[in-house]
Fold this sequence. Notes:
- The structure holds two protein chains of two kinds.
- Chain A is of the alpha+beta class.
- Helices cover 22% and strands 34% of the residues of chain A.
- Chain A is built from one helix and nine strands.
- A five-stranded mixed β-sheet of chain A has the order 3-1-9-5-7, with no helix packed on it.
- Mean pLDDT of chain B is 93; it is low at 1-11.
- Chain B has a single domain (26-509), classed as Cytochrome c oxidase-like, subunit I domain (Cytochrome C Oxidase, Chain A, Up-down Bundle), CATH 1.20.210.10.
- Chain B is mostly helical.
- The longest helix of chain B is centred in the first third of the chain and has 36 residues, at 68-103.
- Chain B is globular and about 65 Å long.
- Chains A and B meet through α1 and β5 of A and α3, α7, α8 and α9 of B.
- Chain B: It is found in: Cell membrane; Membrane.
Amino acid sequence: MNAARAVRLERQNRKLLLRLCVGALVMFGFGFLLVPFYEKICEVTGLNQLLRPDHIGVFNTQVDASRTVVVQFDANTHDLPWRFEPQMRSLRVHPGELVQVAYEVSNVRGEPVTGQAVPSYGPQLAGQFFRKMECFCFQQQTLEAGERRLMPVVFVVDPALPADVHTVTLSYTFFEVEGRRQTSEAPPPKAGPRQRTS
Amino acid sequence: MAAVIPDPLDHHHHHAPSGLMRWLTTTNHKDIGTMYLIFSFVMFLSGGVMALTIRAELFQPGLQVVQPEFFNQLTTMHGLVMVFGAIMPAFVGFANWQIPLMIGASDMAFARMNNWSFWLLPPAAILLLGSFFVPGGATAAGWTLYAPLSVQMGMGMDFAIFAIHIMGLSSIMGAINIVVTILNMRAPGMAMMKMPLFCWTWLITAYLLIAVMPVLAGAVTMILTDRHFGTSFFNAAGGGDPVMYQHIFWFFGHPEVYIMILPAFGIVSQIIPAFARKPLFGYASMVYATASIAILSFVVWAHHMFATGMPAVGQLYFMYATMLIAVPTGVKVFNWVATMWRGSLSFEPPMLWATGFIFVFTIGGFTGLICAIAPIDIQIHDTYYVVAHFHYVLVAGSLFALFAGAYYWLPKWTGHMPSDRLGKLHFWCSLVFFNVTFFPMHFLGLAGMPRRIPDYALQFTDFNALATIGAFGFGLSQLIFLAVVVKCARGGKPAAAKPWDGAEGLEWTVPSPAPYHTFEEAPLVK
C-alpha cells in the first residue's frame, strides 16, 4: 500500500467513523423520542385513555331499564400505607343510568403520601363501555398523615355494552407516586408482581 | 489456537508482547477474532448449563431441582447470555477473522477500537453472570426485561442493565468497524456486487446494529431511571405505561433477531456453492433479499405484542407486514436449493451443517409464519410453541450456521483439517437431539403449556421428559465440537491453502494457517 493511499484511506475512514457515531447517537435519542411519539399516538387514536374524564353527549344516554348490569367494585394498594376500600362491594345499575359511588381511603403512615389510582376492568372489553365522568383517578391524591377521605366516582355504563356482559368489575389500584422504595433494600424479588398492576 | 501464534518466519512481527499482554494489547484482526470465538463458546457453555438446569427441573412435574425464583433467573439469564454473550459475539468473531481476508484488506479499519470492542465483553459477562450472587439473585424479568417487573426487581437487574449497556457499546463499535472496513478497505477491483455474500450480510447486519442497539440502550436506561431516579416512563402511577416498554424493546428486538440470523445466511451462502461446486444461484437477488429483510424488520415489531390488546387494525397491519418477510426469506431458501440443484454435491461436515441448517431453519421460519397470524398468536402467545419456534431459528439457524462456518474455516484458522469423523458425529448427534428436544415443544405449546413456568400439569409430562433427554443429549454433543477444535488446533492433517476444492474467494489464496499479517499489499481482483 503506498503512502498516499494510506493517508487518503485514513481520512476517509475517520469521516465515515464520525458519521456512523453520529448515527448511533441519533438512534439513542430516537429511542427517547419514541416516548412522546407513543403518547401522541395514544392520544390521537383514543387508546389507553384510562385517566381522562368522558363527557356526556358523545354517546347515547337513554336509560335502558329493560337491562340490569351488576357492577362490582374492587380496591387494591400497591406498596402504599393506605387503607382503601369501596363503600359498597357491588351495585345493580341500568345501562345509561348516571351512578355515583364512593371509595373510602385513609393514610395510616405518619407523613403525607401522594398516590395515583389506576383503573382496570373485567372483562377487559367492558372498559370501553364504562364511562367515568368524575373519578379520583383523574388526579394524584395527597393525603396528610392519618387523613381519611371519601372519594367519589361518577359513571355511566354505555348502553352499547354487549348484551352478553352481565357483570362488570371496576378495579382500582393505588400506587405511591413519591418516595419510591429503594430497590436495593427491597426484599428478594418474587416470581411475579405482588398484585396486578393495571 | 495454534493459528494465531506468530509464525517465526514472519518478518513484520518485531516487538509484540508475549503471554497475556499479547492478548490484552493485540490489534490484529485474527487474534481478536479468535478471542471473540473463544469468549462466545465459553458463554455458550455457561448458557447451556443454565438451559440444562431448566430442563432438569422440567423433567418431571413438581419442583425437584430448583426453586421458582431461581428458575425465573435461569430462563432470563439463559436468554441474555445466549443472545448477547454467545450468538452475537460469535458472529463478530467470524467477521473479524473473515471480512479482511475476504475483501483483501490487511486488517480492520480501526484496529485499536477493535481491541476495545472485544475487551469490553469480559467485564460485561462478569457483571451479568456475577449478578447471580448478589442479594435477590440475578434479574428474573425474562430476557425481554419487561416493565413493570424489571422496575421492581432487586439489584441483579441493575447489573443486567449495565452489562447490556457495555455489550451494546461493544456491538456498536464492532459494527462501525465492520461498516468502515467493508466500505473503504476493499482491495482494488473488489466491487460491492463482487463481494462474498458473507460480507454483504454482515454489512447490512452492522447497519442494523448501529440503528437498534442504541434504542435498547435507551430502553434499559429508562428502566434504570424509573428504578432509581424517580422518572415514570413505565410507571402507571406517574403517568407512564408499561406497554410502551414493549414497543421500545421490540423496536430493537425484532431487528435484533435478524442481526442474529443474517450473518448465518451469509455463512451458508458461502458454503453451499463451495460444496455444490457451482456459483451461488441468484447472487444479486440474495443481496436484495437480505436488504429487504433488514428494512422490513423495522416495521413489524408489534407482532410480538398481539396479546397486549392492540386495536384490530394494528393487528392486521403487523400480521400482514410480518408475513411479507416470508417473501425475501423464501427467495433465499429457493436460491440455496437452486444452487444445490444438479451440483456435484459432497457432504463434508461444513456442508452437512449448512444443509441441516436449510432443513431445520425452514421449519422454524414456517412456525414463525404461523405465529405471525394474529388470531393463532393469541392462542399460542407465551406457550412452548413460541419457545419451539425461536429455538428452531436461533439454534438450528444461527448456531448450526456458526458450526458450519467453523468447520469450513477451521483449516484456514489452524492450518489443520478438522476431524471428518468427529465433525459428522457432532452434526448427526446435534441434529437428532435438537429435534428430540424442540419438536415436542410444538405439541406442548399447542396443548397450552405456558413458557417460563417451573411446574406443569401432569398431561405434559411425557413430552417434557422427552425434551429433557434431548436437551442433555444436545448439550453433551457440543463437547464433541470442543474436542474437534482442540484436536484441530493442536495438530492433524495439514490443510492446503484451499482445502475445499470448490471453495472460492480471496481467503483461500493465502496459506493455511493464515499468516499473522495478510494482504499488506492489496491483491488485485479481476
